[in-house]
Amino acid sequence: MSAVAEKVSTKRNMLTALREALDEEMARNPDLLLMGEDIGLLGGAFGVTIGLMEKYGRDRVYDMPISEAAIVGVGVGAALNGKTVCVEMQFIDFISCGFDQIVNMLATYHYRTAGEVEMPVIIRGPAGAYGGGALYHSQMNEAWFAHSPGLKVVCPSTPYDAKGLMKQALRDRNPVLFYEIKELYRLPQIEMELPAEDYTIPFGKASLRREGKDITFVTYGQNVYHCLQAADKLAEHGVEADVIDIRTLVPLDMDSILKSIAKTSRVVVVNEAPKTCGFAGEIVARITDEGFEYLDAPPVRVTRLDTPVPWVKPLESFVLPSVEKIVDAAQKVLKY
Amino acid sequence: MSPADGTATAEKKKSPRRTEQPAPLGPYSAKLTRDQCLELLEHLYLARYFDVRLIKEKKRGRLRGTLYSSHNQEAVLVGSLYGLLPTDWISPIHRDMPAFFLKDARSGLRNPQRIGMTIQEVCAQVWGKAPSPGRARDNWSHIGSKKNRIIHSTSMLAGTIPAAAGVALADRLNGGNCVVLTYNGEGSTAQGVFHEGINFAAVHKLPVVTLIENNQWAYGTPTELEYSLEDFARRADGYGIPGLIADGQNVFDVYDKVMTAVEHSRSGKGPSIVECKTFRAYGHGDHDDDRAAKYRPTPEVEAGRRRDPIAVCKRILVEHGMLTATQAEEFPAEGKGASEVRDEDFPPDVVAYMKEGVDFAIAAPLPEAAEGGMWVFREGDSR
Prior knowledge:
heterodimer, A: Rossmann fold, Rossmann fold, 2 domains, 7-stranded mixed sheet, 5-stranded mixed sheet, 37% helix, globular, B: alpha/beta, 5-stranded parallel sheet, 13 helices, 7 strands
């Protein structure tokens, strides 16, 4: 995947990488506005936008009322009139309050105007479970938007990818839903050095995070790390796994997935969203549509149970994918 | 029947005590020239003729899709649009179809430079033909134009108010001084996004005028089941912004109230709500006319149709000496339903203008089938 940086500076966590991406693009594009709840004076609930209002002023960075529909809608209007707007959902769970404006107003704008109007509106926000956030601070609702034609959907797992994909999103001519995994924001183990120079990562290019020959894991977000750990455990038994981090759901890099499965013939798809109609199911369907002849075993999903995300640890762990669940699934696929 | 008010007969029968006093012209109407006043009447004819012509086309089986009649509500559209500059933005909804070609009509209906749609474009949209501004991808009023400064609506009502605020915000950042006028039925005022959009506009003093076409019925639901105010305009108090009430049958009163709101916005004082009290003459859509006859009390419907905006306009023009009684009788379109009114009841140029649109639409091709799969995403290089 990434070219290693030539000029190295200090290591960055994902949160800092995202802030740098916003900062650099704000400097590059004077028509880029930031809008969200508490993103200015406070710098965001998690601090992604700290310092940006001071640097770019209140005409560029807007502390919005608690009005998710209006936040998206104002972004649509500003984009109609020439601006690029990056909207923060304070938690991605709250996006449901702005749902109509996203799926009916924003997503369809280019389509229903036969290409007259482009909609560079980026909606980003902290997502994902495993932190005890309970029902309304833990969701992964990316499937709603992958299911809505006209939206691109992104979910990075490393600081390098987060910065490069965010910069790409802010330069895209289409609406982008950008899922930031909040458990990864400050995770020290994934801090990395980033290139000093400007870089972007194109959408629709998966990242092969580990190379094997016996089984393929397809995943994204923080489940990448669960899959890498599961791959380590399997390696103790002589099984080597490919771990594919798709990075963007829409567009989806099926070529990389099929190439891996052509080699391994076995696949486990892992994500932390509910199983029914989740994006893991979509990946499995695409694999059976386009790569059935490669398979020696049925593709298997490891997902959240079809439940909300409960609060306390034993309950939360019960419903979410884990390293153990992934290893178990892999062993079943290997034995098939 | 009063020669100046073609619908006065019914009014006199039903409420003999009430006689219309000569309506004094408001501060902005009083400044209009005679030609401008006559132009307002012409625009009322245009809006009415567009509506009745489409109803006839539909009954002849020449049109697909639902029609949402603006009959009896034309003064709201005509009076409000007349108060805008060419560079202002609007967001019409389903009952506002004539707004697309009446925007910036003051610059000349056939003026290719004007910042509004041509009748050809609007008719191509109604007929679902390729030259529609949206290439017939969504139906009826779901068109717009960035170039002509018309926000594209969806079926989710009040949904364009936040977009209007965003357009206004961007315009201000770009150094402009545009006003954005959004059209809404009173039914959509109960939507959460209505509140969110106006609240944001009020916080930032954005030049957004929210016009409420209060036609008393949200599809099959009367106003008392929609909100708990006598005058909806009072809702503005909650946002700390002006709330104005206009007689929606009187094009001059609509013009005055909208101009008041527009000038308030243009001077940097922020948004307003203008409630135009009117009445929906027919069903929600043409599919609903028969049912509407059952769910709406007949006396209410008769009373609501009694003050035809064309008749009200003519009466005022006669009272103010801008039209003779004989001239007012020349094209008696007022007080007639689509099945009764004839082309001869309209000025010839109104009929001719619509014919240009209809002929164009009928001759225009359908879009290529493969266009159904196009334009989901903007292709090409990132910016």
